Amino acid sequence: MNPERRRFQELHQRGLTLVEVLVALSIVTVGLMATAVGFQQATTLLEVGRQQTTALFLAQQRLEQVKASALWDFDGLASTKFPPENPVSGYPAYRREVEIGPTAGLAHTVRIEVTVTYRPATTVRTAPSERTVTLATVMSRRR
Predict the structure, then answer these.
(1) pLDDT tens-place string over residues 8-28
(2) With contact defined as beta carbons under 8 Å apart, do 110 and 102 qualify?
(3) Does residue 98 sit in helix, strand or coil?
(4) Which domain holds residue 44?
(5) How many separate domains does the chain show?
(6) Does residue 92 carry a pLDDT above 60?
(7) Region label for 81, one of left (φ > 0), alpha (ψ between -120 and 50) or beta (otherwise)
(8) What is the pTM of this model?
């Protein structure tokens, strides 16, 4: 029998030991666990990003509504009341508030500030603190 064939048969008959199988299984298990944790973190971060984008959208939406009303009646803007929304209609996890006031040192201007508050997603069982998104702008009377 030729030497190459004999070597192939020896390797083929030898197989794997129990220790080699356990080491390989441990490496595969660690890799799968790391992948599972990575997927969990990615899912949580996607949800956090979605929530922050929604809060930003809600703030921008109200800011545009206030700016549109200022175009029609700038003098009445300071007395216009936008009641706090708790929760925002269609978005039960979000609260929204609008503050309109004079701008210090600038005549015929108002400062508009919209704040949206929400509780972020988390994988931890403890209650997370609330987060806020605030958009502000200064408007002046058109001449």
Answers:
(1) 666 666 667 888 889 989 999
(2) yes
(3) strand
(4) 3-140
(5) 1
(6) yes
(7) beta
(8) 0.70
